[in-house]
Write a structure and sequence with these properties.
The protein is 66% helix and 3% strand. By secondary structure, the chain is an all-alpha fold.
Length: 146
Amino acid sequence: MSNRIRELRNEQNLTLKELGEKVGLAPNTISQYETGDREPKLKTWIKLADFFDVPVSYLQGLDDSRDVNQISFFKISSYDDALEKCLSKKERDELSDIENKIIKVYISRKMDFNTRDELKYDLEKIIEKYDNFMINSKDDNDQEKS
């Protein structure tokens, strides 16, 4: 199943360049997303979904509801189930061991989510906080060596 980026862009009569200017992406990058030659990162999915005012799952072609306010009960049965439903294979492969462990603990404590987008957003925030922590730790270590 393909994503709906091109469909939504065409509905709004936007060129690749115009959409790129509005969301801060290069036109050739958007074109690659539309054709499936490149997979957007989670932050980009969220940015595009917000721009088009649709759920990320609709934009990705995973859900038929365009209603961002529709709440569909989304239950996660396991850690692997959560990752499969929310991250592409490439995104899952790029997770470090520590990111996997942090996400696993989080998901084990909260197995019920209102929507797939809620879980994806939570996962993105966890990874972002970990990345910021690692950057700050590296900066602290560099300062101690000086």
